[in-house]
Amino acid sequence: MRGLGWLSVVGIVFSGQAMAACSVVTTLPASFGSISSMTVRTAAQATSTANSGLSCTSALISLLVSSDHFYATITSSKTGMVGPTGDVIGYTIYANNSTSFPITRGAQFDFGGAGGIAQSIGLIAGPGSKTVPLYVSSITGSNVAAGLYTETLNIAWNWNYCSGIGIGGVCLGRDIGSGTAALTVSMTVTNDCQITAPNISFGSAPVISGFTTVTGQASISCTKGSAYSVGLSDGQNSVSAGGRRRMISGSNYLAYDIFKSAGTTRWGSVGAARRDSSTAEVNPGNGLGTGSQVFNYNARVYSDQTTPPAGTYLDNVVLDVGF
């Protein structure tokens, strides 16, 4: 007889984790939105894009090492966002939401490596696909005309990293690739003005004939290149639109008016009663952005009225700028 024995058959499968893969995809624009020209000049503005062109799927690994790299080189034919008149708004590009990681145009910036930005945003650590964000901040001091400002950045991506880990931490392969994405950065600059208009005081007098003419000026600084007009409302107590302005004290009135320059033409709020920027006594023409235009006026109490009872007479007039 022959004896029978058992032969065990064992199969061992070495399974690696999922392999990552990166590719260049269409970017999402970075838009500052609409910002007034005065704010553009005096305060830095910030915006970002959630997708600057590099997209990677998960490798289900937790750490990148110093030999893993995700390089971006940003170039452009311009030096910033360019507007309709050729004005330029400069800005700085950052690799994360911090001024600690500025990106220099034309220089290779590495998002990878151990402890790099790629690690912090979970670029290949999952779950799902991830894209690389970019952050931009405008540079103050730009005196620019209103309009749409844009720039297209070319972002050359190059990557080389371990795309999958096997048993014992063995790298199963490296994902190596490159590609170029185009990213649009934009800002819409709107017209704005800064107005300085001191109060008008006629002082005091016992009778109407005792009030003298008061002269003054309104200083206005408006967006570079903007054509505008300046109007004065009829005040709070005029009898009719375009009629005499009146100060009030209790139930009593003191009629007065404000006239253009040194003349007798009433300065009003509608049509030809307004003043165009081209008629300014100082710096006539379109807005300067960083300089003021001065509009002179004279104000007089009407002499053909009966002297009202004693009191403090007041009115409020609105100065408006229209583009």
Task: Write structural notes for this entry.
The protein has 323 residues and is mostly beta strands. It has 2 helices and 22 strands. It has a 5-stranded mixed beta sheet. It has a 5-stranded antiparallel beta sheet with strand order 15-16-21-19-18, with no helix packed on it. Strands 3-12-8-9 form a 4-stranded antiparallel beta sheet, with no helix packed on it. A hairpin with a 7-residue loop joins β8 (91-94) and β9. The protein is rod-shaped, with a radius of gyration of 35 Å.
* Computed Rg: 35 Å
Total E-strand runs: 22
Instruction: Assign an overall shape.
Output: rod-shaped
Quaternary status: single chain
Number of helices: 2
Largest sheet: 5 strands, mixed
Distance between the termini: 113 Å
The percent of residues in helical segments reads under 10%
Q: Which stretches of 5+ consecutive residues score pLDDT under 50?
A: 1-17
Structural class designation: mainly beta
Summarize model confidence as the mean pLDDT: 92
| Strand and helix order | EEHEEEEEEEEHEEEEEEEEEEEE
Strand order of the largest sheet: 2-14-13-5-10
Q: What is the strand content?
A: 35-45%
Protein name: Spore coat protein U domain-containing protein
InterPro entries: Spore_coat_component (IPR053167), Spore_coat_U/FanG (IPR007893)
Pfam families: SCPU (PF05229)
Keywords: Capsid protein, Signal, Virion
